[in-house]
Batch of 2 targets.
Target 1
Amino acid sequence: MTNSSNTQYFIDLETKYGAHNYKPLDVVIHRGEGVWVEDVEGKRYLDCLAAYSAVNQGHCHPKILQTMVEQAQKLTLTSRAFRNDQLGLFYEEVCKLTNSHKVLPMNSGAEAVETAIKVVRKWGYQVKGVPEDQAEIIVCANNFHGRTITIVGFSTAEGSRAGFGPFTPGFKIIPFGDAQALEDAITPNTVGFMVEPIQGEAGVIIPPAGYLKQARAICDQNNVVLILDEIQTGLGRTGKLLAEEHDGIEADLTLIGKALSGGFYPVSAVLSNTEVMDVLQPGDHGSTFGGNPLAAAVARTALKVLIEEGMIENAANLGAYFAEGLRQIKQPLIKEIRARGLFIGVEFFPEAGGARQYAKKLMARGLLCKETHQHTLRFAPPLVITKDEVDWALERIEQVLTTA
Ligand SMILES: *Cc1c(COP(=O)(O)O)cnc(C)c1O
């Protein structure tokens, strides 16, 4: 066997030279197309993780690829010291699509979160009149907003925080899905409430019906900025462009990332539908790569194909079909199945002994997914999946869950 088709060779390289901050399944992927990926030994898998929803448009979408290549041959980076001919078009298109007024482009999701934190704090001091350095932001238990020091500082996952203090002050943690807790936590110094419409990393946790509407009303009554982190739930995943549409609300700040580039490039953005963004002046905030022409061009096409190729409707229809199929599986160790669009969590009782064993068995049968929070399997394939492919997946999931 040559090295290039030897799975263990690549695993050994990673183990020897890489930081061990991940525990991946031992599959070494070398190409992908649509919902399918292939490993170095030529084995094919249906990807039911979709890079944590960054490849909603499917692997190596041909139109995004074409834009990527064409733009890369023309211009990749100017820095924001100069303008480029892609950024304004990206702004206009994303604003029209999401009904926003202003956009601030960044790269990773965590940077979008950090940006929102800076913006609401400044808004709090300049507009709301909060005394200097007293601004409070409310977040939810079991949140996942990224990995910077500030962000992990308000995580409730001990593994994310342990050993990394001291942390940034100014955050309050309340239970997720509890509108009364939000109301009780607000003080005159509260500037923002940041929440995921559905908690993804926590195991696809869907809040009680009406929760986001109540949160919207409470924020309005108390002059608090509502920040929705739609980095995972956004861009079609739940069967709507943004998950907030399920609740008929609009956030003041919406964070998007991941699928904003269809997996080609790190592109994130803070969308604003209020004057909140106007507190930023030249020099207040920035990023060398944020808003670069390659990112803007790729994001424009990534958004375009999401809409033009009906991926959002497909997520709604096949998500419901996928979840219904899962509910037919007779396995008493399944505690709950939670689904909205193609964002699906299957939670097992602790007696099952953790969800990772199932992820490994599914991998052996050609389906890639990953456990999240120990007892939950998340199924979130690219939104281009077909009914036949969902059936293919369901067959394998049923086999794995019903044979000892
Ligand atoms: C992935 C994710 C982030 C962080 O994005 P990165 O690009 O990994 O920094 C933030 N919030 C949510 C909800 C996410 O799923």
Target 2
Amino acid sequence: MTSTVHRTCPLCEAVCGLTLTLDEGGHVTSVRGDKDDPFSKGFICPKGASLGQLDEDPDRLRRPLIREGDLWREVGWEEAFAAVKAGLDRVADRRSTAIYLGNPNAHSMAGALYGAPLIRALGTRNVYSASTADQMPKHVASGLMFGHPLAIPVPDLDRTDYLLMLGANPLESNGSLCTAPDFPGRLKALRARGGRLVVVDPRRTRTAALADEHVFVRPGTDAYLLFGIVHTLFAEDLVTLAHQVNGLAEVREAAKHFPPEAVARRTGVPAEVIVRLARELAAARTAAVYARIGTCTAEFGTLAQWLVDVLNVLTGNLDRPGGAMFPKPATEFGARRKPYAVGRWKSRVRGLPESNGELPVATLADEIETPGEGQVTFLITVAGNPVLSAPHGARLDAAFGRLDFMVSVDLYLNETTKHANVILPPPRMLQSGHYDFTLLGFAVRNYARYSPPLLPLDGQPSEAQILARLAVIASGLEGDLDEFVIGEMLRKATETPGSGVEGRDVAELRAELEGETGGERRLDLMLKLGPYGEWAGKGDLSLRKLLDNPHGLDLGPLEPRLGEVLKTASGLIELAPPQIVEDVERLRGKLEEDPPEIVLIGRRHLRSNNSWLHNVGPLVGGSNTCTLQINPADVARLGLDGEAVVRSAKGQLTVPLEPTDTIMPGVVSLPHGWGHAGSSQSVAAEHAGVSVNTLTDESTIDVPSGNAVFNGVPVTISPTGVIIAQ
Ligand SMILES: Nc1nc2c(c(=O)[nH]1)N[C@H]1C(S)=C(S)[C@@H](COP(=O)(O)OP(=O)(O)OC[C@H]3O[C@@H](n4cnc5c(=O)[nH]c(N)nc54)[C@H](O)[C@@H]3O)O[C@H]1N2
Ligand SMILES: Nc1nc2c(c(=O)[nH]1)N[C@H]1C(S)=C(S)[C@@H](COP(=O)(O)OP(=O)(O)OC[C@H]3O[C@@H](n4cnc5c(=O)[nH]c(N)nc54)[C@H](O)[C@@H]3O)O[C@H]1N2
Ligand code: SF4
Ligand SMILES: [Mo]
């Protein structure tokens, strides 16, 4: 007997609904898009379609591993946890412990619900994550402008008349910090209804090819370009404010230094194009500016992310339909008691400021290598592969080898986890519940969907249980973590005026919660207390209701809600936060600088996902390979053929060339997440490629956020076989 089940795809930010067919043995026999999902409406991509192969990959770990020298031994769970405890007991000072949380934590219930308690239990400030290799500039800009790092406006994709998109390629990535299943279809619909799409990218990507206009920009210079647009709005009297703001005069002052003629040379975008973009943005009935990873992982990432929302504000488009809007997720984040701040503490070695409670992953190697009080000797990684994904990952590869003890929670033995003393594998995807606590906060329509586990755990702990157990080991406190958290949340809610449960009895409310696991009960609580919840009084949302609606629930289009979202001390939008404006000097200082002759950027491929889907046969090969895209003019100028040697300040690689006129002259592109030579993942090893993060530089960061810089890395390129004096 086969069965048909529905669940959310956990692989990227698009949160598509999937319909799976399972045979009697619980094996996936087919995966289709779920036509009844009100948000994704049947959309699916090749990754979602291969979920079955991934779920049953013979190379994935099923039991814990303990490393003894170079040998791995499969052990039972109790032995594995005892080994972790023994490793941690050897640490005299918790300041010597560190944790790294990788990208899949943003997709899993375990990451959302148990990451923070684990950090607290470990009691260290050495907290690192993929966020400082990704979107930290956006959190810092939003935190300082709107008072909350998660107050991130998204383009109102389905209604906007004009979309200016920088450094994003949703036709490959399916979107990021903008949850929108079938992003390609939504962009086509925008154009079909007479809207205009402009894409700014050093490559003519598939997204750019679909747009009305593609603008080539020199890597790393988006902040100049955006300032040029802001300058024009002021110069031509095109500013229309729809909200009261602080700092308008400071923004106008700062923008004076960046007239279009001055930034044209640096950005490669002609002055008349910059002026026209400003006029178009101002004239559009509604418009949104949206910028992603190409602009975040850059030297001026925070300035660029800030200017994106400055433009949304200055054109009157923030918080209005068709503009840039704040989603209202069903498990809405709580209020912040203190104003958002960055730099509350600094890293030990380089003195880099904390943001969102994290230190930059760009300095993790320093903390492991540098002796002294607080030197990191014990590391936990959860769902991360920083050896391939962090800037100058090659250095981390060596640094991890020097740790006293390392624990990894991961389904693969890979470039990072090979250094662990203990690897704890999560169960199969189909054995886990799924709710997108994080990603639904960035959705272009309000929506909720819960996927319960489809298969039993068979004695193996869930990932939630693994993380909770690690927290118990680290804190030394026994007890039920979930019931503790539930008690705390209920206590706060019953003491908060207007919470819908003010003055009610905690035990009584606790007894009303449903759910098979602690995670489900916490979800039920958050839904009931959330803006559509049955307790908050504005709806009837609960776990039960989501279980009764397995295709998901549409909660309506985005609505203006700035008043609810703003958490700044002034109660106004802070258009010119001092910590950001301070960095404008650095930008000005480089305005006249001659750009390097050749710079390196990254790219994504539809069938890839950072470093960890290269072991799924149907996804690798063909156009999804690790090649260096280079303009034919550069190939000819440098006398290259077939392969070339790329050198940076940090390392060198020999790579196959892919000449294409879709990339600007003077720019080359190499995807990240490759470099699987010698991997125990058999398919990935056959498609090894090289790691671009051998070349990237951990000493360069976006200053306000500490974010890594992956785009605009200076490199030189020479034919293979030519010996260059170093
Ligand atoms: N298929 C696939 N999907 C993914 C992922 C994946 O690896 N593969 N990863 C997921 C993750 S973790 C994330 S964060 C998202 C990212 O989602 P996106 O931000 O859409 O990521 P990319 O496809 O890398 O698009 C970035 C674009 O920026 C361009 N670019 C590079 N440098 C610059 C610059 O200086 N300025 C400008 N304006 N553009 C520049 C690149 O050419 C590229 O086209 O994708 C997610 N989805
Ligand atoms: N040069 C360059 N470098 C980049 C980028 C770039 O554009 N260019 N992009 C950056 C970005 S945006 C990101 S987000 C980071 C990603 O950085 P990381 O998060 O460090 O890297 P991933 O490749 O996503 O690694 C995910 C790991 O989690 C494991 N995993 C997958 N699912 C699960 C699960 O459910 N549970 C557990 N426990 N483990 C799981 C996988 O096996 C893999 O080891 O890379 C960054 N690095
Ligand atoms: S677009 Fe993303 S969420 Fe949708 S099927 Fe593909 S990988 Fe899964
Ligand atoms: Mo990312």
